[in-house]
Fold:
Amino acid sequence: MTRQLDLADIQGNIVRAYGRHNYPKARYFFLHIDDALAGRNFVEAVRHKVTTATRWNRDPEAIGKPGGAPAVTLNIGFTFFGLAALRLPTRTLQRMPEEFIDGMKSRAFILGDSLLELPEDDLTYGDYGTYDRVGLEKMRPPAPSFDDKWDPVWKNNNRGSDDAVHIWMSMNARVVPFTDTAVGALESQTQWLRDLCAKVGGVRILATNGANGDQEYQAASAVFDTVEGIGMVPTPREHFGFADGIGDPVFAGQLPAKEEADRVRGRGKWMNRKAGWEPLAPGEFLLGHPDEAQELPPTAAPHEFMRNGSFMAYRKLHQNVGSYRDYFAAEAQKFATVMDTPVDEAKVTLEAKVVGRWPDGVPLATHPTYAQWQDYRTHLGLNAEDPKAALAAMAHYRASAAINDFKYGNDITGIRCPSGSHLRRVNTRDYLDPLNDLNGANPDATTQLNKRRRILRRGLPYGDPTPNTGSDETEQGIAFMAICASLFRQFEFVQQQWIQYALDFNQGNNTCPLVGNHEVHKRHIIPADPKSGKPPYICDGLPQFVETRGGDYFFLPSMTALRMVAMGSIDPT
Amino acid sequence: MPNFDAGSYFLTILAPIKEGDVPAEIRNRSGSWDARFRDAVEKTQAETAEGATDNGFVWDDEVSWKQRLRMVLATLPTALQSPATERIGVQSPFARNRRNHLCRFVVIDDVVYNGRVTAKPIIGGGGDPLVPQPVDHLPCSYLLFAADIDAVTEEGASLPAELTERQQGTVRDAYLTALWDSAEAEMRAVFENCTGFDEVDDAASFVRAIRRCQIETTMPFHDYYTRLPALPSLPFDFLKLLVLGPLAVFALALIIWLGGSALEVILNRDWNLEGAFWTMLAALGVTAATAAFSYNLALKQGNKPFPPPPDGDLTSVLKALYLQQHFSDFVVAQQGAGDKDLHKAFGTFLKEHKPEDRTGPTQKPGYVSARFPGAVNP
Structure:
């Protein structure tokens, strides 16, 4: 029997991607705790305003009223040193996962944010006399440290520092209908936070966000389109022009049963032909619940402090839109020549072969060629002349299971969707089934080796969304959040083994062509159908499209845990 | 015979580490490892402006042989196999020969203590819990050195399928001689902390000292088969029949003989059961003989080395790595080229990279990528 999750005890950002629920504007705050008692007072005031996972009355009239959807959400998380600053018992702290204690900066090598195991400053160049020395330091001057370009709030985020990040707080807001202006409640809740800090003392907003370090918070916003006859509407696009945030996993208890049956297709785990897709075990995303290994993962004591909580990686991912534009413009010319297609078609095909979906979200797995994609768009009504009708068709398609319901068992060679593409790396689906044959289809391939490596993606783009205006230097990217029960097993594994390495995809050292580190490995292979008579195409010289500009690991406590922090009564014995 | 398998030789040695402290006169001798290490650290500190004064090293402190061995090993560089080691740029001494696929040093302190002999709490056993049980120890600590090398006496020779014990010894000695000739300083620094190496003065005495420490490699590891060759296998079904057949005859005869004897007593009859008795004994003998034969066959088969993988020698592997990288570059550069241009460019590629010549141009040992400055042998 399925146990009902205690939704009122779980923070709302774990079950909902607010950006997709009509909250297209966000502010992310980072705070420092100077004083433990003030910190507890702060948590006590905040916890009553935290948005939980409770299901909302969907009546638009109820927005902002009890039982209805909030006008502005509020969620909170803590770094390990934030919990230490709140003086949690040592017995609780010492059993926290080591990657959470390390924090994201110390994991730069594992995440591929740095190619060196140690920060440059810590590398010694000892000359041990008799040993051969290649004498490189003249050939290769020391590289700038990996965090040189990070935002000051993250560059200064060091253990024991007065500027260490202790608290993450997020506010997601609705907009005034058909504009890109956030409702006034966003600013008033921001003012409440400022006032609260002033009132409790000992908790500071670190106002050093942004590349110049002059922002009070990290602002984020969906990219808006102006639709004739309607006004401004938020889109799911990021700055490279692709629909994002589509294939998030679904876990048991997250959705009402009626919704779950449809949403789980392509987003849960595929069991067999008879059972099809099933939701993932809640323990993959919520602590204190059985996970996909049918285990209760060990967590810190006491149990009720960790239960219904989760971990989150926050990453500010800068997008080099200039490099992206230039690269695909140039590469499309070559691709068009080799493949004998018009340049426009070559460009969007090339981009899709890197991403794994067409810009509107249609997966290559189901519609691999440009012609098939265009036919499908017409079939769906996406090419409708009436912009209102096209918008409605798009919304309908995005909400349908068709956008996610596919597997790779019939495309092992990657002729439809390249094995090294972004989509196949971050969610391998059934590709890694050990019984898959490298040269044949396997309709019974299951998602067994993928279901323990899933993350809930949250977050929104930031920066000026006007297409074709930004450069590598302007501020734009994604405020990215990954939520999972184990950052080590889920987020870090995907990042290290699948994004920054490709042995599982038989692609050697190639990194993800979209978000991978391209300092050394700069290639992406696009297999061709032998029947087409065309050779495979190799994208070479991939520039760095996406760069990390900061971030850290946070614990997202349950409402019970927040109450325990506020009361200062966490008894781990 | 697993020291030799799949065309490779697997050397495993356990060298006893000296007990006690390193005498001051050895540490302070000019040219000693300690002196060189001291000079290198001081030189590095002098080059970097900060922290030149108090470095935390106390040069005249006492140090045990085991501590010193660990220090030597800690400063022994690995190959240029990661961005960090590439940046440091100090090459492993084992990259100076062309037969070493892999090697490692491990300091084995002692056997791991596993606690008291387990006892079932209800049934008991395991002795009186109030009386301490003996704790097992090794007589001393050991340095383990394991190397995985091409089983050849000349670098670049193709890998042999079979080697006699004597030939294996020749392979080992040739490797150790090459190691001494190319890395004498490092070998001295490591092994002077071990018993039995004080008299080592040249390649021949080094080989003798290592040979005394050699143990059999019982679990060799080899990873160069891209496609599994025909491996030796046992006719298992036949052997089963060979052993179980006579065993069944024995069992049947046993039942007849025992059952018959019992019935004789019960029914007060007198049968001639001698035939059954002798059949039983004969079947037992045949079973023992066939079992012994099968066992020996299995052992003999187990001792048969696996065939060498094609082009599994280090020279070929390095050339393959070199070619793989350059051929990828070639493919990328020629995308979209016309047939004539492609043909011409491939001619140039063949001339430049000489795929048929394993000795050059090629990647040197100890480098992870041919792109690295100095990684290619012209």
Strands of chain B lie at 4-5, 8-16, 100-108, 142-150, 214-215, 362-363, 376-377.
